[in-house]
Amino acid sequence: MLVSLKHVALLRVIFTEWKKCGGIPLAIITIASLLANKGHIKAKDEWYALLSSIGHGLTEDRSLEQMKKILLFSYYDLPSYLKPCLLYLSIFPEDYEIARGRLIWRWISEGFVYSEKQGTNLYEVGDNYFNELVNRSMIQPIGIDNDEKVKACHVHDMVLDLICSLSSEENFVTILDDTGRKMPNSEIKVRRLSIQSSKIDAETTRMEHMRSVTIFTSDVVGKVLDISSFQVLCVLDLEGCKNVSDVGYVGNLLHLRYLGLKATHVKDLPMDIGKLQFLLTLDIRGTEIEALPSSVVQLRRLMCLYVDYNMKLPSGIGNLTSLEVLDELGLSDVDLDFVKELGHLTKLRVLKLDCDDFDESLVKALEESINNIYKLESLDVYVIHGLINCPSEDWVPPPQLRRLAFRSNVSWFKTLPSWINPSSLPLLSYLEIKVFEV
C-alpha cells in the first residue's frame, strides 16, 4: 500500500497526540474528534501548530487538571453557535439521560437555534447541532431509534464538571444540588435555575428575573419555590416531578415558550393557557389530564404538542397552523369536522395517531387531510381493530415521508399497496405494515 507524505505527517501528529492522551479513553476520543473536525488542514506545519496549541497534555502529569486542559481546548474550538448549546447541558444532573427531542425544543425556546436562511426548519438546525456535539464527542449518544437517529444523550462526568464550572463563571446556569452549590449574591441576576435538591434556601423565591427553571425534585414546587412570581419565565420544565398536581399559575407566565409537565400528576390545564401566545412546546404526556381546555387552540405559535392518545382535544385544532409535531393524537369519538381540521396543519412533520373505532367516512376524510400535509416526514397510525385495505389503493401519500408505520392487531392490507413504491415514496427509509400476502 502506498502512503503519501501528507498522510505520513498526519500519522505522526496522531501518534504524538495518542502519547499525549496517556491512554485515557476520554482524552483519546476527544482529541480524535478534534482532529477529525480539522479536515481542512493540509500542511504539516499547520498540524504541528495545532498540536502545540493543545499543550503538553497528559505526558508530564496525568492529573485531572491536564485532562481538563484538553477538554477546555475542545470547548474553545467549538463554533460560537455550539458553545451555549453545550453549556446548557449543565442544567441536567450527573448521569441523567437527556432525550434528544426535549433538548432540541428547549434549545429552540431559549433562542440558541437560528438560521439566516428564510424558511429553514429550526428543529432540523437544532438536530444538526446535536449531531455535531455527538461527532465532537462532547456528548455521548444513548440508543438508536427505528429512523437510525440517536434517542438521547448523557454527558461524561469530566465534561459535566467543566461545563458546570464555565456556566457558573459566566452566570449562564445556576445549579442547586447536594454538593454545596449555593445561590450567587443578591447583586447577580439568576437567568437559568436548575434545582436538583430539595434543600434550597427560601431566597430563591425573590428571583423575579428568572428566564428558565428546571426542577428535578418535587418537594420545592409550590412550597419553597413560588414559580408564579417569575413573570419573564420562558422555560418551565417540571418533567418527572410526581408531587406536582396544580399548575393553575402558568396562564400568567406570558413569556413562556416551553412547558414540560411530562410524568407529573397534573390533572388540568388552566383555561387561560390560551394567553401564552409565545408558547412553542407543550408536553403533557404521562399526566392525569383527560381533556385540554378549548383555549388551547389559541396557541398560534405552538410548534410541538405531546399528548397521550386518551386525552381529548377540543374542536378548532386546525387553528394550530404552526404545529410541526403532534404526538400522539387519539381519534376515537371524534366527528368528521375534527378529522378534516387536521388537513389545515400543513407544517406538520411528525404525526402519530390512534384511530380505534374508525368508520369508512372518517377514514376517507383522514386520507384527504393527510394528503394536504405535504411536509409530513413521519406518520404512525395505530388501530386495535384494523380496517382492511386502508388507506385505499388510490391514496397518494405525502412525498416527503421518511417513516411510515401502520400498526394493528390484525393484518391491515390484503396485499402490498401499489402506492408503496420508490416513485411515490422516494425518501422512505422505514416501513412497518401487516399484509396477508406480499
TrEMBL record:
**Keyword Repeat carried by entry:** yes
- Domain Disease resistance R13L4/SHOC-2-like LRR positions: 209-438
Recorded hits in SUPFAM superfamilies, A to Z, give: L domain-like, P-loop containing nucleoside triphosphate hydrolases
Q: Coiled-coil segments, which residues?
A: none
GO terms under biological process: defense response to bacterium; innate immune response-activating signaling pathway; plant-type hypersensitive response
Task: State whether keyword Transmembrane helix applies.
Answer: no
User: What keywords appear on the UniProt entry?
Assistant: Plant defense, Repeat
Q: Name one Pfam family in it.
A: LRR_14
PANTHER family, per the entry: DISEASE RESISTANCE PROTEIN RP, OS12G0273300 PROTEIN
Domain named Disease resistance protein winged helix is located at: 91-163
Q: What is this protein called?
A: NB-ARC domain-containing protein
